[in-house]
Amino acid sequence: MSRKRAGGSAGSSVQLRVALGLLLVIVAMAVAGLFLEDQANKVNVASVLLPPGADHWFGTDNQGRDVFARVAFGTSIALGSGLSVIAIGGGLGLAIALVCGLGPRWLDTTVMRLLDAIMAFPAFLLALAITMAFGTGLVTALIGITITVIPVFARTLRAEARRATTEPFVEAARTIGLSTPRIAVKHVVPYLNTTFSVQLAANFGNVILILSGLSFIGMGAQPPTPEWGAMITDGLQNALTGQWWIGVFPGIALLVTVVAVNLLSDSLPDLRARRAARKARRRSGPAGTGSTGVTTGPSGPAGTAAPGDASAEVPAAAAVPAAALVKEG
């Protein structure tokens, strides 16, 4: 069993390093893209459809624009769009989860049925319908994608919030008279940390895919904005005549980004579990001194101790008898 755990831990560590390495390259590309915005949209009729070379690393498109500059600036757009949607959608989803998880049953039931109705539609189709209703464009597409993300966060986190209300540390907080908002912020939110971070990473890749899909069919970012999906569409129009690089490089950037984010989301639970195990070993003290057996706080889904829990407010004297017994033994 220990060998299996060691093998799983090593595999997770390698996966995390690969994910971080890929993300480092992607972020570097995005930063470079911020300085290449003018070059990304600069038309040069003398350099139309040039293949990859020393002057143009990724070649040029049918208007002579540098494909590398467009992919780099498109990376900035993708990361910025993904972070915006995840921050807004994740924040609203967390707020809804706390209200439903700690609120009355009738409110929980009503909101959950509404979210079920929204989630009955595939995320891409719902975002497409919103974009078609309110007009094409990058901003409209991001609003539509945000609406599809909120229920995903809310439903997942609501289940964990409900579970947190049955934990001893929440019951203790209620016993000493803490208000529901204070319990939510101080105790339940730390309990949700692991699940929330995994959802952030997992949905980030979905957001980028949906945005690229909308741009691919002409409903997202509009020309000349160098969004990956729109660039892949341009590349398809030239692929049959041999200019493969126009669509291949944006596709590779999209693939690498989504794979890196998914690898990261898969690695996060194991990473949090290992950190929790190290904290538990440090808390138990050196070998031979024993353990006090005192619970120090709530554990999230991955077993991480949350800061600021109710049990942390218990006076330190409560742990003295156990420590004394250990010393006498």
TrEMBL record:
Which residue range or ranges hold the ABC transmembrane type-1 domain? Answer: 73-265
- Spell out the Pfam families in the cross-references: BPD_transp_1
Q: Does the keyword Transport apply?
A: yes
UniProt lists compositionally biased (Low complexity) regions at 292-313
Q: How does it sit in the membrane?
A: Multi-pass membrane protein
Query: Which InterPro entries does this UniProt record tie to the protein?
Result: BP-dependent_transpt_permease, MetI-like, MetI-like_sf
Q: Does the keyword Iron apply?
A: no
Q: Which residues cross the membrane?
A: 16-36, 77-102, 114-132, 138-157, 200-222, 242-265
Q: What would be one Gene Ontology cellular-component term for the protein? A: plasma membrane
| Sorted UniProt keywords | Cell membrane, Membrane, Transmembrane, Transmembrane helix, Transport
Q: Which family does it belong to?
A: Belongs to the binding-protein-dependent transport system permease family.
Put simply, this protein is called ABC transporter permease subunit
Give the source species: Nakamurella alba
